[in-house]
Amino acid sequence: MVVPYKHEPFTDFTLEENREKMEAALKQIEADFGKEYPLIIGGERIITEDKIKVVNPANKDEVLGFVSKSNKKLADQAMEVADETFKTWRKSDPNFRAGILFRAAAIIRRRKFEFTAHLVKEGGKPWKEADADTAEAIDFLEYYGRQMLKIKNGAKVNSRPIEHNQFHYIPLGVGLVISPWNFLFAIMAGTTTAAMVTGNTVLLKPASATPIIAYKLMEVLEEAGMPKGVVNYIPGPGSEVGDHLVEHPRTRFVSFTGSREVGTRIFERAAVVQKGQIWLKRTIIEMGGKDTIVVDNEADLELAAESIVQSAFGFSGQKCSACSRAVIHEDVYEQVKDRVIELTNELTHGDPSDNRHFMGPVIDQAAYDKIMGYIEIGKEEGKLVAGGEGDDSKGWFIKPTVFADVGPKARIMQEEIFGPVVALTKAKDFDEAIEIANNTEYGLTGAVITNNREHLEQAREDFHVGNLYFNRGCTAAIVGYQPFGGFNMSGTDSKAGGPDYLIQHMQGKTTSEML
Ligand code: NAP
Q1: What contacts 261, CB < 8 A, 6 or more positions away?
Q2: In the chain, N or C terminus with fewer CB closer than 10 Å?
């Protein structure tokens, strides 16, 4: 018997004791800086000559490690191992598989500060955000372990007196898991272990900006009793290893989280039936967002401004759920705008190793250049009212930036920027606000701030996003509480951390025996 699922509490950094533990962890992990990390294929450590250099985005000179890089040949080797291991792993006891996840969660919980400190350095996350990432990783393990126990005997079907019918779920085969850098721990761990606990074997290709945390997860899973070859760790360039494995005829499914551009590419390539391929590949694809907070005229305006600022600038706006547009009723537009500017100007930003900073850097030079490019576009499309400056001399820092009076069809209102930039626009009434909120090709998260019950009900039906929040910000979904995933070009709405997630990694089998 396992205790009922409850999400992992966040660490209270207002307590001196916790601050001291975190400072100590940040010191302790320095001993690992510059280390080499091998690939792991079939449990074997493989060092390659070609390496990924991993740096702290807040301080480019701080090299966190050198990670071996897989290529097509090593990817094929990993595929062979995963394919072979599947023959036995698919028959493994679901209780045993769930047990690995529960033990892994316990190991991470014991070393929570150490993992969180690592995320501060590898992901450039402020303490609070890094702690939430670690907590979410633990949540995924605890939740998916329990979900596996729930579905292990399949679902009830009817039988007749002459026959005995059964319906249960079996694994698919080798899954390719491709993860992003933003929730470098939680999403990577969640997508990997969902695939593995359901009896599939896995090829794990983490984002090239953040591959070390994935190596650390491998160590945890091994310590928790995962047999060799079940998850194989093959970091490497998405364009080479990713493309190659998406197209591999032995890949049975792809679980991807990342940008719309790469997601749609994977979707198209996975659809092509390759020579020797005997199935249609399944794809679980979660992509970007252009998430909106709608502010009505009958609303708590302080809550509205706080929700916009927190959702736009938490982790430098690098969340798929981040608020990148606010649509505000014209009656209260000026008030909300002024308060958003005030709150934004109060935010501190700098090296996230220092807990005084609300915001840290963006992830790398490419992100920095892209976001600064959008800031230039924003200057043409709206009025820059806060921020707008960047500094990439030491790390990749961009000030929290607000554009006001932006038209609903402007590029900064339509395209995912994935940085600390929010656009404000005016609506003449609530109907128009919802219309604008729905006017992108995405449909991930959204929020409505209003005290008008009718408008809440209207939004419940008409605001077309996978995760809709009322009278709060649009980020911070919790595993098991707010299953997460989006509509339209935000992805396949797989709802990570929800009750339907695991069976997408399985197929139903009906057995009917005559009596
Ligand atoms: P990305 O550039 O699409 O990369 C995601 C992963 O795909 C990385 O591991 C990347 O490897 C790999 N990749 C790149 N090209 C590939 C290819 N041709 N074939 C196969 N794999 C390939 O996204 P990102 O910048 O890491 O993450 C940010 C994006 O993720 C944003 O759009 C954000 O909204 C989205 N996101 C969505 C969710 C959600 O739940 N909907 C959650 C988090 C993030 P390399 O690193 O080696 O290029």
Answers
A1: none
A2: N
Residue of 320, 418, 484, 493 to test ligand 1 pocket, by largest number of atoms within 8 Å of CB: 320
Per-residue pLDDT tens over the stretch 246-287: 999 999 999 999 999 999 999 999 999 999 999 999 999 999
| 163 and 228 within one domain | yes
323 carries an active-site annotation: no
286 is catalytic: yes
Q: Do 221 and 154 fall into the same domain?
A: yes
CA dist 275 → 239, 247, 262, 271, 322 (Å): 21, 10, 23, 13, 41
Q: In the numeric block, which tokens belong to residue 277?
A: 């391929």
Angle of CA points 267, 269, 275, to nearest 5°: 135
Count of domains for the chain:
2
Range of the domain at 343: 291-478
pLDDT tens digits along 139-167 = 999 999 999 999 999 999 999 999 999 99
Pocket-testing residue among 178, 243, 267, 371, ligand 1, by greatest number of atoms within 8 A of Cβ: 178
Q: Residue 48, by phi and psi: left (phi above 0), alpha (psi -120 to 50) or beta?
A: beta
